[in-house]
Design goal:
Radius of gyration: 23 Å
Number of strands: 23
Number of helices: 15
Largest sheet: 9 strands, mixed
Number of domains: 2
Structural class: alpha+beta
Length: about 450
């Protein structure tokens, strides 16, 4: 049962014996580790299948076949792969319970990104009612596939990502100390991410970590659907276990717990590209945007991808104001600065917190996508695409796939903390913490 001190719920974490690829049998770990994306293209999935017969994509997002039946399908195949790989020693279980320290680093656009997290089991609780807080409204995807996979395999194939905000930096300092030691595992995945694993087995250190997390809230930044799937699975197992105690393995799930203020970890912006319902009119867009934004046309000498980087620089700000860049083709873009700052709070969402109403994406969704383009929540997924890649946005505009793109600034950690503390959630697909944990690095089989 979830512990509680006064009115504060405590996050309960514990060490576990994870399964990992056996380096005595797998020479190149990069060939078996997969990127953390469920909705990958057929081409990407085929490429992962071809890399190795043991690539982890077979476990968490296997191919569906026309011949699939209830008895033979992608979920039963995942179960068979998992059992066979364990039997053959491809996957081996650590001998003692540990908390893992997991570090990922990558260089992009001359910038160094890094994510160091503790990987542990976290006791499940009803979302938003205790120490575990959702950051975003859940993306409308079916949980059925993920539930069937979990029910078939009884395993966490991937870790969900959470941020924690630590005032005193004890865990931050511990990470720096542990980083001085030689990692237990070090490799480079095929997406150019350098990966390291340290196993923390010293009981006083494990106890120190567990105790410190009891004072912290955990903010789910990636994997809320998987979390809710685990809740559904827990309830199913509880219903079918007359001797349920609350301490069975199905009451926990594997999580990657990252310090929100770690050096190198970034909350990336998630941009939007829009295909309008009717024929796109640039003049109509500008006229509508000027109802609430100061709109400035900026001409750039280049009309290649460096233009988009100029857009990013032109909206960068340390001020608490909404700046968005819009591009619909040519050698220029529009910088939009919200001047009507109180309109959303006063006239649109009076029952929401000021922090929520001040989110850039709230202004874009309501004042532009809804009011100007008449794309409401029901039509949103059909006409609006979200991505963290501004290069892909630019290419899509050039190819005519979308009519207009909007470059966003990242959400600040303080905004995430303040909004979730009010019991509110950010609009879906608003934040992207980078780098994300890869799939297949550690697998948690829900067994003693």
């Amino acid at each position: 049962m979830k512990e509680r001190i006064g009115d504060t719920f405590m996050a309960n974490i514990k060490a576990f014996r994870g399964y990992r690829y056996n380096t005595d049998k797998i020479d190149n770990l990069g060939s078996v580790i997969s990127p953390p994306y469920y909705n990958m293209t057929k081409e990407d999935k085929d490429a992962l299948y071809d890399k190795s017969e043991y690539n982890s994509v077979r476990l968490f997002s296997g191919k569906k076949l026309e011949s699939d039946t209830r008895q033979e399908n992608t979920f039963t195949r995942a179960k068979n792969y998992l059992d066979k790989w364990i039997e053959d020693g491809i996957l081996v279980r650590d001998e003692e319970p540990v908390i893992y320290m997991y570090e990922q680093t990558i260089e992009m656009y001359d910038t160094h990104y890094s994510n160091t997290s503790f990987v542990a089991l976290v006791e499940l609780e009803e979302i938003g009612k205790g120490a575990i807080m959702p950051c975003e409204k859940p993306h409308e995807v079916s949980m059925l596939d993920r539930y069937e996979l979990l029910k078939s395999t009884n395993a966490d194939m991937s870790m969900i990502s959470c941020l924690y905000v630590e005032p005193e930096k004890e865990l931050f300092n511990l990470m720096n100390e542990l980083r001085e030691e030689k990692p237990d595992l070090e490799f480079s995945s095929d997406d150019n991410v350098q990966q390291k694993i340290w196993k923390i087995s010293y009981k006083p250190t494990i106890d120190f970590i567990i105790e410190h997390f009891k004072d912290l809230s955990l903010y789910i930044t990636d994997g809320q659907t998987r979390y809710e799937t685990c809740l559904q699975y827990r309830d199913y197992m509880k219903e079918h276990n007359p001797n349920h105690t609350g301490k069975e393995p199905y009451n926990y799930m594997m999580m990657s717990l990252s310090n929100a203020h770690s050096d190198g970890l970034v909350v990336l912006p998630v941009h939007r590209e829009v295909k309008t319902i009717k024929n796109f009119s640039e003049s109509h867009f500008i006229a509508g945007a000027q109802d609430h934004f100061r709109v400035e046309k900026i001409i750039v000498d280049s009309n290649d991808e460096t233009l988009v980087r100029t857009m990013v620089k032109q909206i960068s700000t340390v001020k608490a104001e909404t700046r968005i860049a819009a591009y619909c083709g040519g050698d220029y873009f529009y910088r939009m600065v919200l001047w009507d700052k109180d309109y959303i709070k006063n006239d649109v969402y009076p029952d929401m917190s000021k922090e929520y109403c001040n989110l850039d994406i709230v202004a874009l969704n309501k004042l532009i996508i809804d009011d100007v383009f008449h794309i409401d929540e029901e039509k949103y997924e059909d006409y609006v695409h979200s991505t963290r890649s501004y290069e892909s946005c630019y290419k899509d505009i050039q190819d005519g796939k979308y009519d207009i793109m909007f470059i966003m600034n990242p959400v600040r950690v303080e905004q995430i903390r303040n909004i979730t503390a009010m019991g509110e959630r950010l609009p879906e697909v608003t934040i992207s913490v980078f780098p994300k944990p890869s799939v297949g690095v550690i697998i948690n089989l829900k067994e003693d």
